[in-house]
Amino acid sequence: MKSLKRFVFPKSRRLNANRLNEVYRNLYKAFGPQKWWPGESPFEIMVGAILTQNTSWANVEKAIRNLKQARKLSPPAILKLKDRKLAELIRPSGYFNVKAKRLKIFVDFLFKKFGGDIRLMARVDGRALRVELLQIPGIGPETADSILLYALGKPFFVIDAYTKRIFARHRLSFESRPTSPPRLVDLPYSAWQEIFTRHFSPDVSLYNDFHAQIVRLGKTYCKASVTLCSACPLAKYL
DNA sequence: TGCCAGGCCGGGT
DNA sequence: ACCCGGCATGGC
């Protein structure tokens, strides 16, 4: 998040449980329930989580459509596919060579660990599973948490570019006390995540919809190059 | 036309 | 511990 570094907090507003609840209520009231993740099965969600790395969802949809049409959207099918062929199918999602490898490595993990059975994977303790996911090349914190939350229903809050940008632009920070000179806010993933977990008890439904609302807001009102304030449900915080 | 999108990795300081 | 270039398509 290079762009974030331009946003310095002169005086940040302390985020607490009340403020976070307030933000969520504003988003929910504006957009209604988001019904995430947009995918029909846990495995499709996992694939989507990898394919959407730094990529617009519209492009990922094309790639997933290709996989479905080729009857390749399953762990065994991807396991058998050549990297070359898989890359071809997911071409629209961008970085297709990298992502083809990542998908294969992830599916290898599924078979080695769970015989390719997602239901077995879902039984594992979330924290232990997160550690294992993060050891897989190509799975970083956001992808891991997306898989845990949206595919497996485990309470891990997902932080993404929109989350950082939206909260930074609205000067909703979580510095414990103001610093002088003001700090840059490109804090590590874990620090951003901590704020949500510190103020909310683990709640899969809330974590699910809150992150979805953030993305919804980001796509409409908080793109990297432009912030639209008219009709933005969080405009009052600016 | 150029910038951006629901990151992550590896090499360099 | 940070910082950066690379990875690549499709939409506006």
Task: Describe the secondary structure blueprint for this structure.
Elements: E1 13-14, H1 17-31, H2 42-51, H3 57-69, H4 75-80, H5 83-89, H6 96-114, H7 118-123, H8 126-135, H9 141-151, H10 161-169, E2 172-173, H11 189-199, H12 204-221
Parallel strand pairs: 1-2
Helix pairs in contact: 1-12, 2-3, 2-9, 5-6, 8-9, 10-12
The chain binds a DNA duplex (13 and 12 nucleotides) through residues 2, 48-50, 52-60, 62-63, 91-99, 102, 137-143, 146, 158, 160-163, 211, 214-215, 218-219, 223-225.
List keywords for this structure.
2 domains; two-stranded parallel sheet; DNA-binding; Endonuclease Iii, domain 2; Endonuclease III, domain 1; 238 residues; mainly alpha
Overall description:
The protein is mainly alpha-helical and 238 residues long. The chain folds into two domains: 114 residues, Endonuclease Iii, domain 2 (Orthogonal Bundle); 110 residues, Hypothetical protein, domain 2 (Endonuclease III, domain 1), CATH 1.10.340. 57% of the residues lie in helices and 2% in strands. The chain is built from twelve helices and two strands; from the N terminus they run βααααααααααβαα. A two-stranded parallel ribbon has the order 1-2. α1 crosses α12 and α2 packs antiparallel against α9. The relative contact order is 0.17. The protein binds a DNA duplex (13 and 12 nucleotides) through α2, α3, α6, α9 and α10.
